[in-house]
Amino acid sequence: MHFLFQPLNHLRPIRAWAASRGAKLALDAETFALQVSLGDRTCHFVPRFSIRTPNGFAYTNVLGDQGSFVGWLPYEVRRWPAAVDKLNFKQWCVDQGLRTPQWGVEPLGPTLDFLIKGRRGSFGQGITGPYPAAHGASMAELPVDCFYEAFKFGQAAKAWYWRDRPVAVEVVAPPHVVGDGRRSIEALLGEVRGSFDKAYSPANAGQILAWQGMAASDVPAAGRKVWIGYKYVSDYDAPVFSDRDKWDKLDPAVRQQLLDAGPAFHRAIPAQIAHSVYTIDAVLDPHGLVWFLEMNCHPMVHPKVYAVMLEDLLHSPA
User: Fold this and answer.
1) What is the pTM of this model?
2) Where are the domains of the chain?
3) Which among 68, 141, 153, 226 could disulfide-bond with 5, CB atoms 3.0 to 4.6 Å apart, if both were Cys?
4) Cβ(132)–Cβ(113) under 8 Å?
5) Which contacts qualify for 137-141: CB closer than 8 Å, 24 or more apart?
């Protein structure tokens, strides 16, 4: 994810596209707003910055004293129902014949392990679990504006779309430790291998450990892989500063699922704002099936979006 926070990683593909088309760029150092002009067409790009608030991460268009740059968009803020409410998105998937985990406001039954999710929010906020299926019968009342979702374990995926076209996708394997038959999970997490490493706490892994029938004090057998997270962003992710886009390396069958879903996602966007960037969060399960989870209309921008977006806005026939 660090790759997305580097301004030059965003500017370089825009400069390359402009050079290939003879377009002109103007960057305002005061606001970080960007203007791209080609012939008689001009696009004004609004900068976006991630900031921390008392309620977690948020985005702003204002270049302040804090925050990280996360890209440019040719508009300020756009919202639509399927990208604001996760249940709207899931119902849209069902209506369009797209794969999404089962959900409901009542326990899902005796065979489905599950998560509890808030209907709104991003960055993995408002999610608890996973819980074993048997736990559903003993759950207290479901929190307000939350729902049950069947837990699909696999690789976390985030795909960037421009209109109906997937442009980039990150696929992240869930973090794990490997047992040695001697040390507990807590000890394995706390092991520091050198100046390049740090100690981790098992505090945020409790629920997924319990889902596996384990606790932090357990000593896993030698060679046993123990999962300690499942979200796209977790407390156990190693810093990665290179581009994590896997689009060109994905199994063709997985790529096809993302391509086939694009028109259905695009139809969820009102026609007057159809030229929009959005992300789709999903799980890629061990069988190669993509399970669509939610749509985000206000994402960080992947640098590979720019060439496709600029070509559409400035070079395609009006």
Assistant:
1) 0.94
2) 2-73, 102-151, 176-227
3) 68
4) yes
5) 137/107, 137/110, 139/107
Q: Tell me the per-residue pLDDT of 234-249, one tens digit each, with 9 for 90 and over.
A: 888 877 889 999 999 9
pLDDT at 100: 98
Beta strands 155-162 and 277-284, pairing class: antiparallel
Among residues 313, 301, 296, the alpha carbon closest in space to that of 122 is found at: 296
CA distance 63 to 215: 44
Output Rg (C-alpha) for the chain, integer angstroms.
21
Task: Enumerate residues 6+ apart whose C-beta is below 8 A from 192.
Answer: 198, 199
Q: How does 27-53 read in b/e, with b if 16+ C-beta sit within 10 Å?
A: beeeebbbebebeeeebebbbbbbeee
35: Cα within 13 Å, side-chain hemisphere: 10
Q: Is the CB of residue 59 less than 8 Å from the CB of residue 48?
A: yes
Cα–Cα distance measured from residue 104 to residue 86, given in angstroms and rounded to the nearest whole number: 12
As a whole number of angstroms, the distance between CA 248 and CA 234 comes to 25
- State the average pLDDT over residues 253-281: 97
> Are 300 and 4 in contact, with CB atoms under 8 Å apart?
yes
Between CA 174 and CA 153 the distance in angstroms is 9
